[in-house]
Design brief:
- The protein is an all-beta fold.
- Helix content is 0%, strand content 53%.
- It is built from no helices and 11 strands.
- Strands 2, 4, 5, 6, 9, 10 and 11 form a 7-stranded mixed β-sheet that branches.
- The radius of gyration is 13 Å and the shape is globular.
């Protein structure tokens, strides 16, 4: 079993920054791609970004490209999402997730991930 716990969310003004963390426990995540997703009220969960196990491959949604950066520290079993130039439309609950298979390339589809955190709320005021 893997437990994922996100933190770092909060209320921020438009143009501000936040860094989300996702700490894994139970098993190492070093060989697994990790993804970040978000869900706004009344909307479906959407892909934000993903990173390979070694950290060399990263994908981003077009809506966050150039503003968000995903990284990881495998020694700490932790994945991060640095969010800059935040906009009101970034308001959502943010979730991290672990890929279903070890050594699998990062994927944008939520079905490719099996373990999910409980989420952390990000609210951007305009």
């Amino acid at each position: 079993q893997v437990q994922l716990v996100e933190s770092g969310g909060g209320l921020v003004q438009a143009g501000g920054s936040l860094r989300l963390s996702c700490v894994a426990s139970g098993r190492t995540i070093s060989t697994y791609a990790m993804g970040w997703f978000r869900q706004a009220p009344g909307k479906e969960r959407e892909f934000v970004g993903a990173i390979s196990g070694g950290g060399s491959t990263k994908y981003y949604a077009e809506s966050v490209k150039g503003r968000f950066t995903i990284s990881r520290d495998n020694a700490k079993n932790t994945v991060y999402l640095q969010m800059n130039s935040l906009k009101s439309e970034d308001t959502a609950i943010y979730y991290c997730a672990r890929s279903r298979e070890s050594f699998r390339r990062p994927d944008t589809g939520s079905g490719s991930y099996d373990y999910w955190g409980q989420g952390t709320q990000v609210t951007v005021s305009s």
